[in-house]
Specification:
About 35% of the residues lie in helices and about 15% in strands. It is of the alpha+beta class. The chain has 2 domains: about 1-145, Phosphorylase Kinase, domain 1, CATH 3.30.200; about 185-245, no CATH class. Helix 5 crosses helix 7.
């Protein structure tokens, strides 16, 4: 099943991005993004670009969080914008296709606190403020995101004052942004349910099965499995129930 997603990503790009519609699948390059754990992520690119691929140069605030970062000054993205204007880049020649869910979390968005529609509205707001990539297209079970080149900084570099000076205002802006959700969520119960699901899934990851993964992935899975099996997650739930201030920020 996992091997079918690259082909799905190619097909979706060809069907949703007008300038890709006549591309043979073999001319669409696909690269898996291995650090996506709750979603399946693929970088899709094409070798040539046309004027219909061009959009206004985004305002980049990338400081290397490990994902392509923040971008557009507006929430509008038109594939057919006039390419004769100055300051334009090829936004549609390289994109990220995101399928909700993964082999670790299950299919779809059932593990999330917000609906797909609510998430799209949140991302639209964040993109307009230059602190999130833009959503270029959406489809049932996923979306196509803007790809922005960035440099991934190691922890020591992130801790330096010049980088913190850039990051702090962006983080503060993110935290004070108000988002409208259609219903109130019980985060404690959601966390409790997700812990139960995760424990069930991780119990199936024996050493024999972990041998099929790369060493970094296997090491991460061992650490996560140990975390849940040692019950610190249960203690986290206990602390959450004792918090008096119930208005919290959650990703």
């Amino acid at each position: 099943m996992e091997s079918t997603f690259p082909i799905k990503a190619k097909t979706i790009c060809r069907s949703l991005i007008s300038s890709w519609s006549n591309l043979p699948l073999q001319e669409i390059n696909v690269e898996s993004v291995s650090n996506g754990r709750s979603n399946r992520l693929f970088i899709c690119s094409r070798s040539s670009a046309t004027s219909s691929d061009l959009t206004t140069e985004p305002k980049s605030s990338s400081v290397g969080s490990g994902q392509p970062v923040a971008c557009s000054s507006t929430g509008h993205h038109d594939e057919n914008i006039d390419s004769s204007k100055s300051g334009q880049v090829d936004r549609y020649s390289k994109v990220i296709v995101r399928f909700y869910g993964s082999e670790f979390t299950g299919e779809g968005n059932q593990y999330k606190c917000v609906s797909d529609d609510e998430e799209m509205e949140i991302l639209k707001i964040l993109s307009a403020r230059g602190i999130s990539p833009a959503v270029l297209k959406s489809f049932p079970g996923g979306r196509i995101d803007e790809y922005i080149e960035s440099t991934i900084l190691d922890p020591k570099r992130i801790a330096q004052i010049d980088i913190l000076t850039i990051l702090a205002p962006k983080i503060a802006q993110y935290h004070v942004t108000r988002f409208k959700c259609e219903k109130v969520y019980d985060l404690v119960q959601i966390c409790r349910d997700n812990i139960t699901k995760a424990t069930e899934i991780l119990s199936n990851y024996t050493e024999t099965r972990l041998a099929d993964y790369s060493e970094p992935t296997a090491l991460l899975l061992r650490k996560v499995k140990q975390f849940y099996m040692d019950k610190p997650a249960t203690r986290l739930i206990e602390k959450m129930t004792l918090i008096k201030q119930k208005n919290v920020f959650a990703h």
